[in-house]
Predict the structure.
Amino acid sequence: VFIRPVYVWQQGNQENFWGFTVVDVSLNRMLEHMDLTRLGLVGIRYQLCWTDSTTGKEVEISSNGTLAGDRVSAIRGIDGDTWTLYMQPINGWGNTWIIVMLTWIGLTITGLLAFARAHILQIRHQGEIDE
């Protein structure tokens, strides 16, 4: 339920209080409209939480599994309440073996370039001595 004040403009650009509007939002319809299940289809685990503005306690509203470790969050304030969507890849942020292999390849290439540079400098140095 959202309660908002309504103001009307009078002549002379005066703002006068008219009353309140009350909007009743169905949580189920809101979640259906958000279509969070699509996140799971693309490999994202999520958790939607609402923070009670009176107690400050975070309440889980919807999720597709338990989030562990590093996660990202999107925080939005709606009418004094805070909604947080936590997300993380189902298979983790990166494949450890791929990271290790790319690191090894990078170090190998760096080592070969350093060796080639040292060899070129040695050949140049020998050329200067022979002259």
